[in-house]
Amino acid sequence: QVHLVESGGGLVQAGGSLRLSCAASGRTRSMGWFRQAPGKEREFVAAISWSGGSTYYDDSVKGRFTISRDNAKNTVYLQMNSLKPEDTAVYYCAARTTTMAVTAANYDYWGQGTQVTVSS
Fold first, then answer.
1. Cα 102-104-105 angle, rounded to 5 deg
2. C-alpha–C-alpha distance, residues 44 and 36, integer Å
3. What are phi and psi of 62, to 5 degrees?
4. Residues 6+ apart with CB under 8 A from 61
5. Closest listed residue to residue 1, CA positions, set 77, 92, 97
6. For residue 98, what pLDDT is reported?
7. CA 85 to CA 94: how far, in whole Å?
């Protein structure tokens, strides 16, 4: 069983930055970040392989967000720069025991989410 705990969310002005963290207990392989805004479906943000050598981003965050991981700490990060009001959402960390995926249904474990609010 894998337990994921996100942290680092908060309120920030447009153009600002936040770094989300996701601490995992248990064995994982690839991990990802998703987000869900009110009234919308959960959407893919970024994913990273076990080694960290492969990453993948949604076009909406490419060039602004960076996913990384520290396997010694069993933690994945999402550095978010140049934040926009449309980035406002609850951000979820997810893990799976196989290769990277961009579809929420393909992930086995989820955190409780952390709120990110970007004011204009």
1. 115
2. 9
3. -60, 130
4. 45, 46, 80, 87
5. 97
6. 87
7. 23
Name the E strands within the chain: 3-7, 10-13, 18-25, 30-36, 43-48, 55-57, 65-70, 75-80, 89-96, 109-110, 114-119
Phi-psi region of 105 (alpha: psi -120 to 50; beta: other; left: phi over 0): alpha
- Residue 20 corresponds to which tokens in the numbers above? 């989300």
Q: Alpha-carbon distance 118 to 103, whole Å?
A: 25
Q: Measure the CA–CA gap between 61 and 73, rounded to whole angstroms.
A: 25
Per-residue pLDDT tens over the stretch 39-79: 999 999 999 999 999 999 999 999 999 999 999 999 999 99
For residue 24, the surrounding DSSP H or E stretch is strand 18-25
CA 20, CA 41: separation in Å to the nearest integer?
Answer: 20
Dihedral sign computed on CA atoms, order 86, 87, 92, 97: positive
Helix/strand/coil for 87: helix
| pLDDT > 70 in the chain, percent | 100
